Amino acid sequence: NVSLGEEWDDQNTTLTSLQVSFTPTLVIVSNTFCTIFLIVTSAIVRSVSEKVRMLGSLTLCLLAMVIITALTLVNTDSWQMTFFVVTMIIVALLNICAAVTQGSIYGLSGIFPSTCINSMYSGQAIAGVFSSLARIISLLLGDEPVTSGLIFFAIADVFLVFSIIEYIFLTKMTYYAEMKSDSEKKEVLETQPEVKSNWASYLVVFKKLWLMGMTYGGTLFVTLMIYPAVVVYITSTSAESPWSEVFFQPTITFLLFNLADWVGRETPRWVPWPGPQGWMLHVVGAARLIFLPLLMLCHGTNKTFPTIFNNDAYYIIILFLFAFTNGHIGTLCLIYYPALVEADELEVGGAILAAMLGVGMVVGSLLSPALVALWGPH
């Protein structure tokens, strides 16, 4: 509730039940609808054209964001529960659109060289960096929550408009046309004589990708179990100041995370380790579970879980490594998967991998309230 003005409490000292449940509910709704429609996208990738999927989802996403932007100017004090429900419905719509866009991009990226896949995945992290910077800028420009929120959402609206324009520009590029044409020719040459149903062909591709998909989905499973639902309660150990009270969370929990994630997505260009053979990649991916107790042991002013790391430096180092491995392992999975399938299976393979990512996301987010309960904010 940002319409309280000077009574606004941003230190988690007097949280209402809606405020406590907001982040876990947001994560669950986001990832549930995202996963469902990542799976739907993998099923319709051959029956609905790429342009319809991309432009349709981006346009609906823009409309939903415009509604959210307008709602920042509405006083919701008298209808908090209704506003909570409306917000979650809009969040669901945004994630439906994001899932269709993401699944389509993953499928499309499979027909391009691995450097393009790396750039696509890094671009997602850059978007997170821009989002974090936009939040910090909005806080600097507007002291009131309404003003900073309006600036933040307006920046998102502008970026969505640019995304639509950039996609249209991409489809008119010669390089894009050549890669699409080459992919279609390979599909014709490599299509097997026997005719298989769509679901049979999906099953064939899934059998080739299930292990890589498990590792890929596992990266987000581990990440979303604790981020952001729990880490938003981690507080600075420094004395009261604008840094500890206002800028610590946006700068460390979000900007640092997205920067480290971006670095992790870039490093496979030069250090493609672990390799695609053997079990090392999958073991390293599973080892990220160690970050869950490490982050739970960081400092918080309102928690019942034990605290061991009573210094901001510990949290910064742990969070950096947590985000770096998220980006690095995920990028390696995307780079390696095209070698596991045939040319005519690349687009379906990318969509299936995105769907498995979504499953990891939703399972991780469903488990996040349990970690919030263990943390124990009152």
TrEMBL record:
What is its membrane topology? Multi-pass membrane protein
Q: Which UniProt keywords apply?
A: Membrane, Transmembrane, Transmembrane helix, Transport
One of the record's GO molecular function terms: nucleoside transmembrane transporter activity
Name its cellular compartments: Membrane
- What parts of the sequence cross the membrane? 20-40, 52-73, 79-100, 121-142, 148-170, 209-234, 279-301, 313-339, 351-375
| A GO CC annotation given for this chain | plasma membrane
Taking the first listed entry, what is the main subcellular location of this protein, grouped into a coarse class?
Answer: membrane
A family per Pfam: Nucleoside_tran
InterPro entries cross-referenced by the UniProt entry? Eqnu_transpt, MFS_trans_sf
The UniProt entry's sequence similarity note says: Belongs to the SLC29A/ENT transporter (TC 2.A.57) family.
Name recorded for this polypeptide: Equilibrative nucleoside transporter 3
What species is given as this protein's source? Cherax quadricarinatus (Australian red claw crayfish)
Higher taxonomy: Eukaryota, Metazoa, Ecdysozoa, Arthropoda, Crustacea
